[in-house]
Amino acid sequence: xxxxxxxxxxxxxxxxxxxxxxxxxxxxxxxxxxxxxxxxxxxxxxxxxxxxxxxxxxxxxxxxxxxxxxxxxxxxxxxxxxxxxxxxxxxxxxxxxxxxxxxxxxxxxxxxxxxxxxxxxxxxxxxxxxxxxxxxxxxxxxxxxxxxxxxxxxxxxxxxxxxxxxxxxxxxxxxxxxxxxxxxxxxxxxxxxxxxxxxxxxxxxxxxxxxxxxxxxxxxxxxxxxxxxxxxxxxxxxxxxxxxxxxxxxxxxxxxxxxxxxxxxxxxxxxxxxxxxxxxxxxxxxxxxxxxxxxxxxxxxxxxxxxxxxxxxxxxxxxxxxxxxxxxxxxxxxxxxxxxxxxxxxxxxxxxxxxxxxxxxxxxxxxxxxxxxxxxxxxxxxxxxxxxxxxxxxxxxxxxxxxxxxxxxxxxxxxxxxxxxxxxxxxxxxxxxxxxxxxxxxxxxxxxxxxxxxxxxxxxxxxxxxxxxxxxxxxxxxxxxxxxxxxxxxxxxxxxxxxxxxxxxxxxxxxxxxxx
Length: 516
Hints:
Structural class: alpha/beta
Helix content: 40-55%
Oligomer: single chain
Number of strands: 14
Strand order of the largest sheet: 2-9-8-7-6-3-4-5
Shape: globular
Protein backbone atom coordinates (compact mmCIF):
# COMPACT_ATOMS: atom_id res chain seq x y z
CA UNK A 1 0.00 0.00 0.00
CA UNK A 2 1.47 3.33 -1.05
CA UNK A 3 1.85 6.03 1.61
CA UNK A 4 -0.58 8.99 1.70
CA UNK A 5 0.14 11.69 -0.83
CA UNK A 6 0.93 14.23 1.88
CA UNK A 7 3.52 11.85 3.29
CA UNK A 8 5.01 11.35 -0.20
CA UNK A 9 5.21 15.10 -0.85
CA UNK A 10 6.88 15.72 2.49
CA UNK A 11 9.54 13.12 1.82
CA UNK A 12 9.94 14.26 -1.78
CA UNK A 13 10.76 17.78 -0.61
CA UNK A 14 13.51 16.45 1.61
CA UNK A 15 15.04 14.59 -1.31
CA UNK A 16 14.70 17.13 -4.13
CA UNK A 17 15.22 20.37 -2.20
CA UNK A 18 17.96 19.66 0.33
CA UNK A 19 19.44 22.46 2.36
CA UNK A 20 22.97 23.65 1.73
CA UNK A 21 24.18 21.80 4.83
CA UNK A 22 22.48 18.59 3.70
CA UNK A 23 24.06 18.81 0.24
CA UNK A 24 27.48 19.25 1.81
CA UNK A 25 26.90 16.46 4.29
CA UNK A 26 25.58 14.14 1.59
CA UNK A 27 28.71 14.69 -0.42
CA UNK A 28 30.80 13.73 2.59
CA UNK A 29 28.72 10.60 3.11
CA UNK A 30 29.04 9.66 -0.56
CA UNK A 31 32.84 9.71 -0.33
CA UNK A 32 32.75 6.94 2.30
CA UNK A 33 29.59 5.12 1.24
CA UNK A 34 29.87 1.95 -0.87
CA UNK A 35 26.54 2.89 -2.47
CA UNK A 36 27.29 4.87 -5.68
CA UNK A 37 24.10 6.86 -5.60
CA UNK A 38 25.03 10.47 -4.80
CA UNK A 39 28.65 11.00 -5.85
CA UNK A 40 28.81 14.71 -5.01
CA UNK A 41 26.68 17.36 -3.46
CA UNK A 42 25.68 18.73 -6.82
CA UNK A 43 24.11 15.45 -7.85
CA UNK A 44 21.64 15.86 -5.03
CA UNK A 45 20.77 19.45 -5.61
CA UNK A 46 20.97 19.91 -9.41
CA UNK A 47 18.50 17.21 -10.33
CA UNK A 48 21.01 14.85 -11.97
CA UNK A 49 19.80 12.18 -9.54
CA UNK A 50 16.07 11.73 -9.12
CA UNK A 51 14.65 11.78 -5.61
CA UNK A 52 13.38 8.20 -5.96
CA UNK A 53 16.89 6.89 -6.56
CA UNK A 54 18.60 8.56 -3.63
CA UNK A 55 19.95 6.04 -1.11
CA UNK A 56 18.04 6.51 2.14
CA UNK A 57 20.83 4.65 3.95
CA UNK A 58 23.35 7.12 2.66
CA UNK A 59 21.24 10.19 3.46
CA UNK A 60 20.34 9.28 7.05
CA UNK A 61 23.82 10.21 8.37
CA UNK A 62 23.66 13.40 6.34
CA UNK A 63 20.27 14.36 7.72
CA UNK A 64 21.49 13.59 11.21
CA UNK A 65 24.61 15.73 10.66
CA UNK A 66 22.45 18.64 9.52
CA UNK A 67 20.24 18.36 12.60
CA UNK A 68 23.24 18.18 14.91
CA UNK A 69 24.74 21.26 13.23
CA UNK A 70 21.52 23.20 13.62
CA UNK A 71 21.18 22.14 17.27
CA UNK A 72 24.77 23.18 17.95
CA UNK A 73 24.18 26.62 16.47
CA UNK A 74 20.99 27.05 18.49
CA UNK A 75 22.80 26.01 21.65
CA UNK A 76 25.56 28.56 21.02
CA UNK A 77 23.01 31.35 20.42
CA UNK A 78 21.18 30.36 23.61
CA UNK A 79 24.42 30.42 25.60
CA UNK A 80 25.24 33.91 24.35
CA UNK A 81 21.78 35.16 25.34
CA UNK A 82 22.13 33.61 28.80
CA UNK A 83 25.47 35.29 29.28
CA UNK A 84 24.12 38.66 28.14
CA UNK A 85 21.10 38.44 30.46
CA UNK A 86 23.25 37.33 33.40
CA UNK A 87 26.67 39.08 33.45
CA UNK A 88 27.75 37.02 36.46
CA UNK A 89 27.08 33.74 34.64
CA UNK A 90 30.17 31.50 34.43
CA UNK A 91 29.30 30.66 30.81
CA UNK A 92 31.74 32.23 28.38
CA UNK A 93 30.16 32.32 24.89
CA UNK A 94 33.64 32.57 23.38
CA UNK A 95 34.77 29.40 25.14
CA UNK A 96 33.15 26.58 23.19
CA UNK A 97 33.90 23.84 25.72
CA UNK A 98 32.41 25.79 28.63
CA UNK A 99 29.36 26.67 26.58
CA UNK A 100 28.69 23.11 25.51
CA UNK A 101 29.05 21.78 29.06
CA UNK A 102 26.57 24.31 30.37
CA UNK A 103 24.01 23.76 27.63
CA UNK A 104 24.11 19.96 27.86
CA UNK A 105 23.06 20.02 31.53
CA UNK A 106 20.53 22.84 31.28
CA UNK A 107 16.80 22.31 31.28
CA UNK A 108 13.82 24.47 32.28
CA UNK A 109 13.20 22.38 35.43
CA UNK A 110 16.83 22.52 36.51
CA UNK A 111 16.95 26.25 35.86
CA UNK A 112 14.19 26.61 38.44
CA UNK A 113 16.03 24.42 40.91
CA UNK A 114 13.68 21.43 40.45
CA UNK A 115 14.43 17.78 39.79
CA UNK A 116 13.02 16.17 36.65
CA UNK A 117 10.00 14.12 37.77
CA UNK A 118 9.54 10.40 37.18
CA UNK A 119 6.87 9.24 34.77
CA UNK A 120 3.26 8.87 35.88
CA UNK A 121 3.45 5.10 35.42
CA UNK A 122 6.52 4.90 37.65
CA UNK A 123 4.91 7.05 40.33
CA UNK A 124 1.90 4.71 40.37
CA UNK A 125 4.11 1.64 40.80
CA UNK A 126 4.03 0.61 44.44
CA UNK A 127 4.94 -2.79 45.87
CA UNK A 128 3.55 -3.12 49.42
CA UNK A 129 6.07 -5.78 50.43
CA UNK A 130 9.04 -3.64 49.47
CA UNK A 131 7.49 -0.54 51.06
CA UNK A 132 6.76 -2.21 54.39
CA UNK A 133 9.94 -4.27 54.63
CA UNK A 134 12.18 -1.38 53.58
CA UNK A 135 10.53 0.92 56.12
CA UNK A 136 11.20 -1.53 58.96
CA UNK A 137 15.02 -1.32 58.72
CA UNK A 138 15.60 -3.46 61.79
CA UNK A 139 18.97 -5.01 62.62
CA UNK A 140 18.82 -8.60 63.90
CA UNK A 141 20.05 -9.66 67.31
CA UNK A 142 23.82 -10.18 66.81
CA UNK A 143 23.81 -13.01 69.35
CA UNK A 144 21.35 -15.15 67.39
CA UNK A 145 21.60 -16.52 63.87
CA UNK A 146 19.08 -15.07 61.44
CA UNK A 147 16.25 -17.33 60.29
CA UNK A 148 14.45 -15.91 57.26
CA UNK A 149 10.81 -16.97 57.04
CA UNK A 150 9.94 -14.13 54.70
CA UNK A 151 11.20 -14.89 51.20
CA UNK A 152 9.12 -17.09 48.91
CA UNK A 153 12.17 -18.75 47.37
CA UNK A 154 12.21 -22.51 48.01
CA UNK A 155 15.96 -22.71 47.34
CA UNK A 156 17.27 -20.07 49.74
CA UNK A 157 17.62 -22.32 52.80
CA UNK A 158 19.21 -25.24 50.96
CA UNK A 159 16.62 -27.72 52.22
CA UNK A 160 15.03 -28.15 48.79
CA UNK A 161 16.94 -28.93 45.62
CA UNK A 162 15.59 -29.33 42.09
CA UNK A 163 15.52 -32.73 40.45
CA UNK A 164 18.75 -33.89 38.80
CA UNK A 165 16.77 -34.03 35.57
CA UNK A 166 16.72 -30.23 35.48
CA UNK A 167 20.49 -29.76 35.25
CA UNK A 168 20.80 -32.62 32.75
CA UNK A 169 18.17 -31.03 30.53
CA UNK A 170 20.01 -27.70 30.56
CA UNK A 171 23.34 -29.36 29.79
CA UNK A 172 21.78 -31.31 26.94
CA UNK A 173 20.38 -28.11 25.45
CA UNK A 174 23.73 -26.32 25.70
CA UNK A 175 25.57 -29.25 24.16
CA UNK A 176 23.11 -29.33 21.29
CA UNK A 177 23.70 -25.65 20.53
CA UNK A 178 22.52 -24.05 17.33
CA UNK A 179 20.50 -20.97 16.57
CA UNK A 180 17.36 -22.25 18.29
CA UNK A 181 19.31 -22.61 21.54
CA UNK A 182 21.71 -19.67 21.37
CA UNK A 183 19.79 -17.20 19.21
CA UNK A 184 16.63 -15.15 19.37
CA UNK A 185 13.37 -17.06 19.57
CA UNK A 186 9.83 -16.09 18.57
CA UNK A 187 8.39 -13.73 21.17
CA UNK A 188 5.71 -16.29 22.08
CA UNK A 189 8.34 -18.98 22.69
CA UNK A 190 9.69 -21.97 20.81
CA UNK A 191 7.14 -24.44 19.49
CA UNK A 192 8.27 -27.61 21.26
CA UNK A 193 8.24 -25.79 24.62
CA UNK A 194 4.71 -24.52 23.99
CA UNK A 195 3.55 -27.97 22.92
CA UNK A 196 4.92 -29.48 26.14
CA UNK A 197 3.27 -26.79 28.27
CA UNK A 198 -0.06 -27.24 26.48
CA UNK A 199 -0.11 -30.89 27.56
CA UNK A 200 -0.12 -29.73 31.19
CA UNK A 201 -3.40 -27.91 30.46
CA UNK A 202 -5.89 -30.40 28.98
CA UNK A 203 -7.85 -29.00 26.06
CA UNK A 204 -5.26 -26.39 25.14
CA UNK A 205 -3.02 -26.24 22.08
CA UNK A 206 0.43 -24.82 21.50
CA UNK A 207 -1.19 -21.79 19.84
CA UNK A 208 -2.92 -20.98 23.15
CA UNK A 209 0.41 -20.78 25.00
CA UNK A 210 2.86 -17.90 25.35
CA UNK A 211 6.19 -18.56 27.09
CA UNK A 212 7.15 -15.72 29.42
CA UNK A 213 10.02 -14.49 31.54
CA UNK A 214 8.66 -15.97 34.74
CA UNK A 215 5.09 -16.06 36.01
CA UNK A 216 5.30 -12.38 36.95
CA UNK A 217 5.78 -11.52 33.28
CA UNK A 218 2.77 -13.69 32.43
CA UNK A 219 0.71 -11.71 34.96
CA UNK A 220 1.87 -8.47 33.40
CA UNK A 221 0.85 -9.65 29.91
CA UNK A 222 -2.53 -10.83 31.18
CA UNK A 223 -3.45 -7.70 33.14
CA UNK A 224 -2.14 -5.32 30.49
CA UNK A 225 -3.83 -7.26 27.68
CA UNK A 226 -7.29 -7.52 29.26
CA UNK A 227 -7.88 -4.26 31.12
CA UNK A 228 -8.01 -0.60 30.13
CA UNK A 229 -7.65 2.50 32.25
CA UNK A 230 -10.62 2.81 34.58
CA UNK A 231 -11.52 -0.89 34.45
CA UNK A 232 -11.62 -2.84 37.71
CA UNK A 233 -9.53 -5.91 38.53
CA UNK A 234 -10.93 -8.01 41.38
CA UNK A 235 -8.17 -9.55 43.52
CA UNK A 236 -8.14 -11.84 46.56
CA UNK A 237 -7.56 -10.30 49.96
CA UNK A 238 -5.26 -11.52 51.45
CA UNK A 239 -3.45 -11.90 48.18
CA UNK A 240 -0.19 -11.60 46.29
CA UNK A 241 0.40 -7.83 46.00
CA UNK A 242 1.87 -7.92 42.48
CA UNK A 243 -1.62 -8.06 40.97
CA UNK A 244 -2.36 -4.61 42.31
CA UNK A 245 1.11 -3.27 41.57
CA UNK A 246 0.82 -4.14 37.87
CA UNK A 247 -2.76 -2.91 37.59
CA UNK A 248 -2.29 0.44 39.34
CA UNK A 249 0.75 1.27 37.22
CA UNK A 250 -1.62 1.10 34.24
CA UNK A 251 -4.40 3.14 35.85
CA UNK A 252 -6.52 0.04 36.35
CA UNK A 253 -8.56 0.09 39.55
CA UNK A 254 -8.11 -2.73 42.05
CA UNK A 255 -10.91 -4.09 44.22
CA UNK A 256 -10.23 -6.71 46.87
CA UNK A 257 -12.61 -9.53 47.68
CA UNK A 258 -12.48 -11.37 51.00
CA UNK A 259 -10.89 -14.72 51.74
CA UNK A 260 -12.40 -15.93 55.01
CA UNK A 261 -9.88 -17.24 57.58
CA UNK A 262 -12.69 -18.93 59.53
CA UNK A 263 -13.41 -21.23 56.56
CA UNK A 264 -9.78 -22.01 55.77
CA UNK A 265 -9.39 -18.94 53.53
CA UNK A 266 -12.16 -19.91 51.11
CA UNK A 267 -13.61 -17.14 48.92
CA UNK A 268 -16.43 -15.23 50.59
CA UNK A 269 -19.04 -15.50 47.83
CA UNK A 270 -21.38 -12.99 49.48
CA UNK A 271 -18.57 -10.46 49.60
CA UNK A 272 -17.89 -11.13 45.90
CA UNK A 273 -21.48 -10.29 45.01
CA UNK A 274 -21.36 -7.13 47.13
CA UNK A 275 -18.13 -5.93 45.46
CA UNK A 276 -18.87 -6.54 41.77
CA UNK A 277 -20.24 -3.89 39.40
CA UNK A 278 -20.24 -3.04 35.70
CA UNK A 279 -16.66 -1.74 35.81
CA UNK A 280 -15.30 -5.13 36.89
CA UNK A 281 -13.76 -6.97 33.93
CA UNK A 282 -11.42 -9.61 35.38
CA UNK A 283 -11.28 -11.63 38.61
CA UNK A 284 -8.01 -13.13 39.86
CA UNK A 285 -8.30 -16.60 41.38
CA UNK A 286 -5.04 -17.72 43.04
CA UNK A 287 -5.17 -21.43 43.79
CA UNK A 288 -3.32 -22.72 45.79
CA UNK A 289 -2.98 -19.41 47.55
CA UNK A 290 -0.07 -17.17 48.35
CA UNK A 291 -0.03 -16.12 51.21
CA UNK A 292 -2.72 -18.35 52.71
CA UNK A 293 -1.81 -21.86 51.60
CA UNK A 294 -5.48 -22.58 50.95
CA UNK A 295 -6.69 -24.89 48.17
CA UNK A 296 -10.16 -24.59 46.68
CA UNK A 297 -12.43 -27.60 46.23
CA UNK A 298 -14.03 -28.41 42.89
CA UNK A 299 -17.47 -27.34 44.09
CA UNK A 300 -16.10 -24.03 45.40
CA UNK A 301 -14.41 -23.32 42.06
CA UNK A 302 -17.65 -24.08 40.23
CA UNK A 303 -19.37 -21.46 42.40
CA UNK A 304 -16.71 -18.94 41.38
CA UNK A 305 -17.15 -19.86 37.69
CA UNK A 306 -20.92 -19.35 38.02
CA UNK A 307 -20.30 -15.95 39.59
CA UNK A 308 -18.00 -14.96 36.71
CA UNK A 309 -20.57 -16.12 34.16
CA UNK A 310 -23.37 -14.10 35.78
CA UNK A 311 -21.31 -10.93 35.65
CA UNK A 312 -19.45 -11.45 32.36
CA UNK A 313 -16.00 -11.61 33.95
CA UNK A 314 -12.82 -13.20 32.63
CA UNK A 315 -11.03 -15.39 35.17
CA UNK A 316 -7.30 -14.84 35.59
CA UNK A 317 -6.08 -18.05 37.22
CA UNK A 318 -2.75 -17.77 39.01
CA UNK A 319 -1.79 -21.44 39.39
CA UNK A 320 1.94 -21.13 39.95
CA UNK A 321 1.52 -23.44 42.99
CA UNK A 322 -0.72 -25.91 41.15
CA UNK A 323 -0.21 -29.52 42.23
CA UNK A 324 1.61 -28.35 45.38
CA UNK A 325 -1.12 -29.75 47.62
CA UNK A 326 -0.81 -31.72 50.83
CA UNK A 327 -1.90 -35.29 51.43
CA UNK A 328 -5.63 -35.80 50.93
CA UNK A 329 -6.12 -32.50 49.08
CA UNK A 330 -6.66 -32.31 45.30
CA UNK A 331 -5.85 -29.47 42.95
CA UNK A 332 -8.38 -28.65 40.22
CA UNK A 333 -7.27 -26.32 37.38
CA UNK A 334 -10.17 -23.92 37.05
CA UNK A 335 -9.98 -23.90 33.23
CA UNK A 336 -10.75 -27.62 33.21
CA UNK A 337 -14.08 -26.88 34.91
CA UNK A 338 -15.21 -23.94 32.79
CA UNK A 339 -17.53 -24.63 29.86
CA UNK A 340 -18.36 -21.05 28.94
CA UNK A 341 -16.29 -18.57 30.96
CA UNK A 342 -12.92 -17.62 29.44
CA UNK A 343 -9.93 -18.38 31.66
CA UNK A 344 -6.39 -17.07 31.30
CA UNK A 345 -4.03 -19.27 33.31
CA UNK A 346 -0.53 -18.25 34.37
CA UNK A 347 2.05 -20.61 35.82
CA UNK A 348 5.71 -21.58 35.52
CA UNK A 349 8.64 -23.65 36.72
CA UNK A 350 9.57 -21.48 39.70
CA UNK A 351 7.82 -23.15 42.62
CA UNK A 352 6.82 -26.68 41.60
CA UNK A 353 10.19 -27.33 40.01
CA UNK A 354 12.21 -25.33 42.58
CA UNK A 355 13.96 -23.00 40.10
CA UNK A 356 12.60 -19.45 40.61
CA UNK A 357 15.79 -17.92 39.22
CA UNK A 358 15.37 -19.59 35.85
CA UNK A 359 12.52 -17.19 35.03
CA UNK A 360 10.43 -19.53 32.89
CA UNK A 361 6.69 -18.94 33.00
CA UNK A 362 3.72 -19.20 30.68
CA UNK A 363 0.27 -17.92 29.88
CA UNK A 364 -2.49 -20.15 28.48
CA UNK A 365 -5.75 -18.84 27.04
CA UNK A 366 -8.81 -21.06 27.55
CA UNK A 367 -11.60 -19.82 25.27
CA UNK A 368 -14.57 -22.20 25.33
CA UNK A 369 -17.00 -19.58 23.96
CA UNK A 370 -14.72 -18.29 21.18
CA UNK A 371 -14.61 -14.70 22.41
CA UNK A 372 -10.91 -14.29 23.25
CA UNK A 373 -9.18 -14.25 19.85
CA UNK A 374 -8.56 -10.50 19.92
CA UNK A 375 -7.39 -10.62 23.53
CA UNK A 376 -4.96 -13.46 22.80
CA UNK A 377 -3.66 -11.55 19.78
CA UNK A 378 -3.08 -8.68 22.18
CA UNK A 379 -1.06 -10.97 24.41
CA UNK A 380 1.05 -11.92 21.41
CA UNK A 381 1.65 -8.28 20.51
CA UNK A 382 2.60 -7.44 24.10
CA UNK A 383 5.00 -10.39 24.15
CA UNK A 384 7.13 -8.63 21.53
CA UNK A 385 8.16 -6.02 24.12
CA UNK A 386 10.29 -8.61 25.96
CA UNK A 387 11.42 -11.67 24.01
CA UNK A 388 10.32 -14.19 26.60
CA UNK A 389 12.49 -16.50 28.65
CA UNK A 390 16.06 -17.63 28.03
CA UNK A 391 16.44 -19.67 24.84
CA UNK A 392 18.50 -22.26 26.73
CA UNK A 393 15.81 -22.77 29.39
CA UNK A 394 13.11 -22.98 26.73
CA UNK A 395 15.11 -25.63 24.88
CA UNK A 396 15.17 -27.72 28.07
CA UNK A 397 11.46 -27.38 28.82
CA UNK A 398 10.25 -30.50 26.93
CA UNK A 399 12.71 -32.76 28.73
CA UNK A 400 11.99 -31.13 32.10
CA UNK A 401 8.23 -31.47 31.83
CA UNK A 402 8.45 -35.02 30.51
CA UNK A 403 11.11 -36.29 32.91
CA UNK A 404 10.51 -34.74 36.35
CA UNK A 405 8.44 -37.45 37.98
CA UNK A 406 5.25 -37.13 40.03
CA UNK A 407 7.15 -38.97 42.77
CA UNK A 408 9.68 -36.13 43.00
CA UNK A 409 6.90 -33.53 43.17
CA UNK A 410 5.10 -35.47 45.90
CA UNK A 411 8.30 -35.69 47.93
CA UNK A 412 8.60 -31.90 47.84
CA UNK A 413 5.03 -31.25 48.97
CA UNK A 414 5.35 -33.96 51.64
CA UNK A 415 8.33 -32.16 53.19
CA UNK A 416 6.46 -28.85 53.09
CA UNK A 417 3.45 -30.49 54.73
CA UNK A 418 5.67 -31.84 57.51
CA UNK A 419 7.05 -28.35 58.05
CA UNK A 420 3.53 -26.96 58.28
CA UNK A 421 2.78 -29.49 61.01
CA UNK A 422 5.90 -28.34 62.90
CA UNK A 423 4.62 -24.76 62.84
CA UNK A 424 1.15 -25.74 64.05
CA UNK A 425 2.35 -28.07 66.81
CA UNK A 426 4.87 -25.53 68.14
CA UNK A 427 2.99 -22.24 67.95
CA UNK A 428 -0.05 -23.80 69.60
CA UNK A 429 1.88 -23.60 72.91
CA UNK A 430 1.25 -19.83 72.99
CA UNK A 431 -2.25 -18.30 73.17
CA UNK A 432 -0.82 -15.38 71.21
CA UNK A 433 -0.98 -17.41 67.98
CA UNK A 434 -3.71 -19.03 65.94
CA UNK A 435 -2.46 -20.95 62.92
CA UNK A 436 -4.84 -21.30 59.96
CA UNK A 437 -3.94 -24.81 58.70
CA UNK A 438 -2.59 -24.65 55.14
CA UNK A 439 -3.53 -27.21 52.50
CA UNK A 440 -0.83 -26.50 49.93
CA UNK A 441 1.65 -24.04 48.41
CA UNK A 442 4.56 -23.18 50.75
CA UNK A 443 3.18 -20.66 53.25
CA UNK A 444 1.16 -20.48 56.42
CA UNK A 445 -0.71 -17.51 57.86
CA UNK A 446 -0.62 -17.01 61.62
CA UNK A 447 -3.11 -14.78 63.40
CA UNK A 448 -1.60 -12.66 66.18
CA UNK A 449 -3.98 -12.56 69.14
CA UNK A 450 -3.10 -9.11 70.42
CA UNK A 451 -5.36 -9.52 73.45
CA UNK A 452 -2.55 -11.64 74.92
CA UNK A 453 0.23 -9.19 74.00
CA UNK A 454 1.33 -5.68 74.80
CA UNK A 455 2.15 -5.20 71.13
CA UNK A 456 -0.47 -3.60 68.92
CA UNK A 457 0.23 -4.29 65.22
CA UNK A 458 1.70 -7.06 63.11
CA UNK A 459 4.35 -4.64 61.84
CA UNK A 460 5.49 -3.88 65.38
CA UNK A 461 5.44 -7.61 66.14
CA UNK A 462 7.61 -8.37 63.08
CA UNK A 463 10.07 -5.59 63.85
CA UNK A 464 10.63 -6.61 67.44
CA UNK A 465 10.77 -10.31 66.56
CA UNK A 466 13.61 -9.59 64.15
CA UNK A 467 15.42 -7.26 66.53
CA UNK A 468 15.24 -9.62 69.50
CA UNK A 469 14.99 -13.14 68.09
CA UNK A 470 16.51 -12.68 64.59
CA UNK A 471 13.45 -14.28 62.98
CA UNK A 472 12.13 -12.52 59.88
CA UNK A 473 8.44 -12.90 59.01
CA UNK A 474 6.29 -10.77 56.72
CA UNK A 475 3.53 -8.65 58.26
CA UNK A 476 0.10 -9.56 56.92
CA UNK A 477 -0.45 -5.98 55.83
CA UNK A 478 1.88 -6.74 52.91
CA UNK A 479 -0.97 -8.91 51.61
CA UNK A 480 -3.98 -7.02 52.89
CA UNK A 481 -4.31 -9.09 56.08
CA UNK A 482 -3.85 -6.93 59.14
CA UNK A 483 -3.34 -8.85 62.34
CA UNK A 484 -1.54 -11.76 60.64
CA UNK A 485 2.02 -12.68 59.72
CA UNK A 486 3.12 -15.00 56.90
CA UNK A 487 5.71 -17.73 57.43
CA UNK A 488 7.53 -19.56 54.64
CA UNK A 489 7.63 -23.35 55.06
CA UNK A 490 10.83 -24.17 53.15
CA UNK A 491 13.66 -24.04 55.75
CA UNK A 492 15.03 -27.27 57.15
CA UNK A 493 12.94 -28.88 59.89
CA UNK A 494 15.46 -27.99 62.58
CA UNK A 495 15.66 -24.34 61.60
CA UNK A 496 11.91 -23.99 61.29
CA UNK A 497 11.39 -25.58 64.72
CA UNK A 498 13.96 -23.23 66.23
CA UNK A 499 12.26 -20.21 64.62
CA UNK A 500 8.88 -21.22 66.03
CA UNK A 501 10.31 -21.83 69.51
CA UNK A 502 11.84 -18.35 69.41
CA UNK A 503 8.40 -16.95 68.48
CA UNK A 504 6.85 -18.66 71.50
CA UNK A 505 9.57 -17.26 73.79
CA UNK A 506 9.05 -13.84 72.27
CA UNK A 507 5.30 -13.95 72.84
CA UNK A 508 5.86 -14.91 76.49
CA UNK A 509 8.05 -11.86 77.01
CA UNK A 510 5.35 -9.54 75.66
CA UNK A 511 2.51 -10.95 77.75
CA UNK A 512 1.52 -14.22 76.11
CA UNK A 513 0.88 -16.95 78.66
CA UNK A 514 2.41 -20.26 77.65
CA UNK A 515 -0.01 -23.18 77.44
CA UNK A 516 0.95 -26.41 79.21
